[in-house]
Amino acid sequence: MENQNQEVPSETSTKPKRTRRPNKRPKSNGDESSSTKQTATNSSDAKVSASNAKGHIWSIEDFPVAEVEGKLRFHDLNLPDRVIKSIAEMGFEYCSEIQAETLPMTLLGYDIIGQAQTGTGKTAAFLIAMISDFLDYPLEEKRPNNFARGLIIAPTRELAIQIADEAIKLTTNCHLNVVTLVGGLSYEKQKIALETENVDILVATPGRLLDFARSRKVQLGKVECLVLDEADRMLSMGFIPDVKSIIRMTPHKETRQTMLFSATFPKDIQALAQQWTYFPKEVSVVPKEATNQNIDQVIYTVEADQKWPVLKQLIEENGGQRTIIFANRRDETRDLYERLRKANINCAILSGEVAQDKRVKTLKNFKDGVIQVLVATDVAGRGIHVDNVELVVNYSLPEDPEDYVHRIGRTGRGGETGKSVSFASEDDAFMIPEIEKVVGESIRCEYMVDTSQ
Ligand code: AMP
């Protein structure tokens, strides 16, 4: 997808026709495209800045970030102080590329179609826009708790939980509530949350959300901001009919803000993205050819029965490295897990058959370094946000070549270097050209000699 960030004389460059959002933010020089250069004023909520134990009122001066040529600071976006404070506490200083590309437009109320993978900072990109908007435009009317203001739909439970975690961090300094509705976790607890808390930001997977929405336990008729994350994955997992039903329950696209993100844009997603958004700005921060630039990728061509000894050797040689091994089927993950365990390798499984609460715990242990090796299937491994994954192994090549990009994207995050090793045997080597087409480059192949025999 082209980067259409610049103003171009096309229909998509027309200003949104919203009535409540135009000119919502003071512009320093009247030129919207240069809003990235606005200086911080943040006067709007100076009074609400939280004070610390000694009575010191936090202000943006407590968060000095030097101006750097070519980098956009969060200071430069005129965000509410309460949001800036959370950003400072999270340790962010400069906008990532997707944030720098989208925030100046989303803060003005534009819809966005964004091509970006996990690891680019897209979660904070849409959350900061949504939270800032809700703080700038507090509700004027009293509503029942269960009317959602912001709705974020994600394809997997793991991803939804991670988005909610980031939303909770970004709202620690304001009174916006985050509610998560995902399958596999207690329905009752989620129902109680809807009854007792204001649903300011709702993060949900499609199936469970639809259950709650159809029984009117959650109301979507006043949603102001809708985010569809990993739209391509929603398509491949068969969620589009559910998502369509959900979107029909939200206000018309002219009166809500819609942000749609996807790593890839197959034709169906392109069409849906246009259908669901209103004069969207299109942004792409991961041109295909640049994808995975900082990941050293290698394919080992092996006999099927060489895979295990080669894997064992690889893990032992890379002693202690945080590793994710992807397999295509659950029984393969189980088998691998057993072998790794018997080889005294500290490991765990992340697949669809593992109960949700266990999966959340496993992911936490992996993040905390308690577990070294994670054996995962594509669905369960999707959207895992763990920094410092040094090695990704494709024990089998994925059946869908797009999954290859998602899998290896678990390493080399945030500009770090990473390594991916893929096994190709007689069963799946035919996939290599397809994968190379998606990656946009040829991948180094090495013929493995099994030294253990
Ligand atoms: P995401 O693409 O949303 O999965 O984000 C990947 C990781 O980058 C997450 O751990 C975020 O907390 C982190 N992150 C997001 N924005 C920034 C930023 N501007 N500076 C530093 N880290 C960030």
From TrEMBL:
InterPro entries: DEAD/DEAH_box_helicase_dom (IPR011545), DEAD/DEAH_RhlB (IPR044742), DEAD_box_RNA_helicase (IPR050079), Helicase_ATP-bd (IPR014001), Helicase_C-like (IPR001650), P-loop_NTPase (IPR027417), RNA-helicase_DEAD-box_CS (IPR000629), RNA_helicase_ATP-dep_RhlB (IPR023554). Residues 1-11, 31-48 have a biased composition (Polar residues). It holds the Pfam family DEAD. Its EC number is 3.6.4.13. SUPFAM superfamilies: P-loop containing nucleoside triphosphate hydrolases (SSF52540). GO terms for molecular function: helicase activity. It catalyses: ATP + H2O = ADP + phosphate + H(+). Residues 72-100 form the DEAD-box RNA helicase Q domain. Residues 103-283 form the Helicase ATP-binding domain. Keywords: ATP-binding, Cytoplasm, Helicase, Hydrolase, Nucleotide-binding, RNA-binding. It comes from the Bacteria. Residues 294-453 form the Helicase C-terminal domain. It is an enzyme of class 3 (hydrolase). HAMAP family: DEAD_helicase_RhlB. DEAD-box RNA helicase involved in RNA degradation. Has RNA-dependent ATPase activity and unwinds double-stranded RNA. Component of the RNA degradosome, which is a multiprotein complex involved in RNA processing and mRNA degradation. This is ATP-dependent RNA helicase RhlB. It comes from Marinomonas pontica. The gene is rhlB.
